[in-house]
## 1
Amino acid sequence: MKKVIVITGAGKGIGKAIALDFAKATRTKNGFDPVLILVSRTLKELELVADECRRYGATADAMQADIADTTQIERLVDSTLQRHGTIDCLVNNAGVGRFKPLSELSEEDYEYTMATNLKGTFFLSQRVFPIMEEKKSGHIFFITSIAAEISFKSSALYAMSKFGQKGLVETMRLYAKECNVRITNVMPGAVYTPMWGEVPAEMQAGMMMAEDISGPLVQAYLLPQRTSIEELVFRPVSGDINE
Ligand SMILES: NC(=O)c1ccc[n+]([C@@H]2O[C@H](COP(=O)([O-])OP(=O)(O)OC[C@H]3O[C@@H](n4cnc5c(N)ncnc54)[C@H](OP(=O)(O)O)[C@@H]3O)[C@@H](O)[C@H]2O)c1
C-alpha cells in the first residue's frame, strides 16, 4: 500500500530516525510502500536523509519549508497533493527549544519558540486534517514531550509551547474520533539529539537515543487502522534529566 507520510524536522534527530524507520519498513510489512515527504529549513540535510531512505526502497522527497510561515505550509501541502494526491500521515516533529533561566528569556526567544512549536504545528495540522477527514482515514503524530506535563526550571518557554501542543492534541482528538483518524501524542523525556548541543559523556549516558522513539512510532502507524495508540511515553530508565 502506498502511504504518503509528511515528517517535519526530518533533517536530524528524532525526525531523521522516524524517516529512516519508515523507510526500513518498506515492503517488509504487508507491502507497505511509503512516500516520505521530508521537511525542514535545511535542504542539504533533507537530501542526505532522502538518499538514505531511497536506499531502503522508499520514495522520498526533500522539501524545504519553515513551518513557522503559513505561506510555506500552503506551498508544502499543495505541492505534496499535486505530486502524490493525498496525505495519509503527518508527523508533527519539528520543534525548537531555548533553555535558559526564567529571567534571561527574551521576547525574541518567546517569538521563536512559539512560531515553530505552536503556530507551525497548529496551522500545518489544521491544513492537513480535512484531507484525512474527507477520506475518513489518516494518522497524525505530535512529538510533544514529557515537558507537555512536567516543567523544568530552564524550560519555561519550551514547557509553555509543549503544554500548548498538548491542548491541540486533545482538541484535535475530539474531531478525529468522528472520522476514523488516529491521533498519537508522543511524549519523550531526554533524547540525545542535536537539540541538546554538546553534552558531557555522563549526561549522555542517561539519555535515550532517537531510534528508541522512532521504532515504536512506526509500529504504532503499522497497526490496523481500527486500533489507535493514543499516547507513547518514553523516559530514560534512570529518570529525567533536570536541566
Ligand atoms: N531531544 C529531546 O530530548 C526531546 C525530548 C522530547 C521531545 N522532543 C521533541 O522532539 C522533536 C524533535 O526534537 P530533536 O531533539 O530531534 O531536535 P533537533 O535535533 O534540533 O531537530 C529538530 C528538527 O526540526 C527542524 N525544525 C525546527 N524548526 C523548524 C521549522 N520552523 N520548520 C521546519 N523545520 C524545523 C530542524 O531543522 P532546521 O533547523 O533545519 O529547520 C530539525 O530537522 C521536537 O519537537 C522536540 O521538542 C525532543
## 2
Amino acid sequence: MRSLWQERAETLGSDGFHARGHYDVVVAGAGITGLTTAVLLSRAGRSVALLEARRVGALTTGGTTGKVSLLQGTMLSRIRTHHGDKVLKAYVQGNLEGQKWLLRYLDDHRVPYQTRTAWTYAERGGALGPLEEEHAACAAAGLDARRGDAAELPFRTAGALRLEGQAQVDPMDVLAALASELRARGGALVQGIRLTGADTGRARRGGPIEVATDHGPLTADRIVLATGTTVLNRAGHFALLTPSRAFAAAFSGPERHEGFPQGMYLSLDTPSRSIRSVPPLPGHPEAHGADDGGPRLVVVGGAFRPGRAPTAALRTELLDWVRERFPGTTPTHVWAAQDYYPASAVPLVGALPGTGGRIHSATGFGKWGLANGVAAAISIAADILGGNIPWARELYHAGLSGRGAEEAASLNLGVVGRLAAGWAQALAAGKGRPPAGDCEVAGTKHHVSRVCTHLGGVLQWNEAERTWDCPLHGSRFSCEGMVVNGPAVKPLRRG
Ligand SMILES: Cc1cc2nc3c(=O)[nH]c(=O)nc-3n(C[C@H](O)[C@H](O)[C@H](O)COP(=O)(O)OP(=O)(O)OC[C@H]3O[C@@H](n4cnc5c(N)ncnc54)[C@H](O)[C@@H]3O)c2cc1C
C-alpha cells in the first residue's frame, strides 16, 4: 500500500555500509526529522551516517497529507490547556521556524510547493466548542486565524476557522532534495540497515558509543533517533505516547473535472477528515504505476489505534465518505500512516536520560510533524553543535516534564490490561500454547509467533494492510515477521 507520494518518488540509491566505521554522528531514520538533522550537521562539517531501516520516506513522512501548517486541528488549545500561554508561544515559534526553514529550503532547491489557506472546520454543531477554543489559542499565540465560511467544500459546515499563507508539499520531493544535499556534503545515506541498540553505558562514561545494527556494529560520538517512535527503551517514551493510525486515499476527478478544493481542510468531527488537492505534475509526465500525473484529491481520516480496530471496515468507510461527498471521483492510491500523540501534548525532543546527553531523540508530533520535525532537527543540531535556542528549551522541557503524568498513567494502566487480556485470550484459544499466526503472500505461507518483540504484546491481524499489529505500543510486522513500525527492532520468531 504505497502512498501517492511514494509511488511518484524516484528511487534513491544507498551508500555502502561500513561495519566498524566511526562517525561523528549516527542518525537513525530517513523521514523529515532524520534527514533535516543529518543535513544541518553535515553543513557544520560533522561526518554523518544516516541509517534507514527500510527506505527513505518509508513510514510517516512518506504517508503524510503534506500540509505545512500552523493551523493544526486542536493542537494549540490542547497545549494551552496543559501548559499555558508561555509554552504555547514557544510551540508556535518553533513551528514557525520549522515552516520557514522548510519553505526557504524548497525555494533554494527549486522544489515545488503550493501556498494555500488552511481551514479547520466543524461539519456538525458539536465540534463548534473545540473550534472556538482553537480560535482563542491562535489569538493568544499571535496567529491571525479568522472565522470564515468554507464555501468551497461541496457540503455544508457549521463553522470554520482559516489561516492564510500556509503551504502544502509532496513530502517525497522534500526528502529527495534533503537526501541529495546530505550526499553532496559527504554524508552517507545507508538504506536497509536497522539500528537495534546502543551502548548507553559507554555514552554516559565518554568515548565512542557502540551502535548495534542488523548488519554489524558502528561507533559514533553522538546518536540521533529520528525513528518515528523512539526505538531504545531508555527514556520509556513508548509509555508516554499513544500511537494513532489513519487511512488515506488519493482520487482522480470525474471526466469533466471542474477542479478540487484549493484550500487545505481538517474537520474536528468524529471521525475527522483531512482534505487537500494535488496539482497536476508539470507537463503530465509518463504515468507512474496507477498515477497518470493528473490532479488529485487527497483525503485522510478516521484515526484508530493499531491492533485495536477493524481496519477493512475503516478503509471502506473513508472511501464511501469520499464517494458521497465528491461524486465521480475514483481512488487511485489507498494507504495508511501512523504517528504518535504525547501524553504531555508537546513533542518529546532532546537527549535521553542516562546517556551523558549524547543520545538524542525526537517523537510525539501528533500528526503535525512536517514543521515540528524540522523544528526538532534545528534544536537537536543546536544541542550537538553547542547552540542555545530559547523556544526549544521552553518547549521541550515542558514535553519531558511531569505535566501529562496522569494521562500517561492511565495510558499505561490500559496497556497493562490489554497485555493481560491478550495473553489470556490467546492461551485459551491455543489450549495453552503461545500465540502464533499464519498468512500467505504470493502463494508462500508464513507461520510466525504473534508475540511482539518489544514488550510481549499479543499481535492482532490487520486485515486491510496484511500486517501483525501490536495493541500496546503500535509496533507492526509484515506477514513474514519483519519489523514495519517500531518501537520493536527485532523480527518475529518464525515457525
Ligand atoms: C495520516 C497522517 C497524516 C499526516 N499529515 C500531516 C500533515 O499534513 N502535516 C504535518 O505536518 N504532519 C502530518 N502528519 C505527521 C507527520 O507526517 C509526521 O509527524 C512526520 O512525518 C514524522 O516524521 P519523522 O521523520 O519523525 O518520522 P518518519 O517519517 O516515520 O521516519 C522515521 C524513519 O525511521 C525509520 N526507522 C524506524 N526504526 C528504525 C531503526 N531502528 N533504525 C533505522 N531506521 C529506523 C523508518 O523506516 C522511517 O523511515 C501526518 C501523520 C499521519 C499519520
